[in-house]
């Protein structure tokens, strides 16, 4: 199968960006009821009395939205072989109903595998911003990608 992006298409310093995913109050509550049912995610009244002063999205929902934006940005068109995991994940600022999130992903390092000539790794940092340009989350991790020209 031919893909748009192989390991060779990534380089240190490369910045990939996408934007425009808004989050409604109903989406925040629905996600939280299923996966993170803390009151400041699920109950408007209790959230108003919380440290946050109102309803906020679960950090896991923000991370899930980041993953979706990465998929839409390039992963679904790439020769991705998955990931061994992330090294860091930080929720910097609460995401609130009505926020519109966008993603900036920066390639930090690429490395050809010495044990698998058909594969290389890409280390990147993904940053999620709200509509005000405020950083709300960042994560760093490694992706594995098939090489277009194994062994070159």
Give a nutshell description of this structure.
With 152 residues, the protein is α+β, with helices and mostly antiparallel strands.
Describe the model.
The chain is an alpha+beta fold. It has a domain at 7-22 and 58-146: Roll (Thiol Ester Dehydrase, Chain A). Helix content is 24%, strand content 34%. It has 4 helices and 5 strands. Strands 1-3-4-5-2 form a 5-stranded antiparallel β-sheet, covered by helices on one side. Strand 3 and strand 4 (119-129) form a beta hairpin. The longest helix has 15 residues, at 59-73. The radius of gyration is 18 Å and the shape is elongated. The two termini are 19 Å apart. The relative contact order is 0.24.
Spell out the blueprint of helices and strands.
Elements: E1 15-22, H1 25-35, H2 39-42, H3 44-49, H4 59-73, E2 85-91, E3 100-112, E4 119-129, E5 135-146
Antiparallel strand pairs: 1-3, 2-5, 3-4, 4-5
Q: What's the rounded overall pLDDT mean?
A: 96
Query: Helix-strand pattern, N to C?
Result: EHHHHEEEE
CATH superfamily of the domain at 7-22 and 58-146: Hotdog Thioesterase
Distance between the termini: 19 Å
Question: CATH class of the domain at 7-22 and 58-146, please?
Answer: Alpha Beta
Cα gyration radius (Å): 18 Å
Structural class: alpha+beta
Proportion of strand residues: 25-35%
Q: Bin the helical content.
A: 10-25%
Instruction: List the uncertain runs.
Output: none
Which strands sit side by side, in order, in the main sheet? 1-3-4-5-2
**Quick one: biggest sheet?**
5 strands, antiparallel
The tally of beta strands, per DSSP, is: 5
- Report the CATH architecture of the domain at 7-22 and 58-146: Roll
């Amino acid at each position: 199968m031919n893909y748009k992006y192989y390991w060779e298409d990534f380089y240190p310093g490369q910045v990939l960006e996408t934007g425009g995913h808004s989050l409604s109050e109903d989406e925040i509550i629905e996600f939280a009821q299923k996966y993170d049912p803390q009151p400041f995610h699920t109950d408007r009244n209790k959230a108003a009395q919380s440290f946050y002063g109102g309803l906020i999205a679960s950090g896991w929902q923000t991370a899930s939205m980041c993953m979706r934006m990465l998929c839409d940005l390039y992963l679904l068109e790439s020769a991705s072989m998955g990931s061994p995991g992330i090294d860091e994940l930080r929720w910097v600022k609460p995401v609130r109903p009505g926020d519109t999130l966008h993603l900036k992903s920066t390639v930090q390092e690429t490395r050809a595998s010495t044990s698998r000539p058909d594969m290389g790794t890409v280390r990147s940092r993904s940053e999620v911003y709200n509509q005000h340009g405020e950083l709300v989350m960042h994560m760093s991790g490694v992706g594995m990608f098939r090489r277009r020209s194994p062994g070159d």
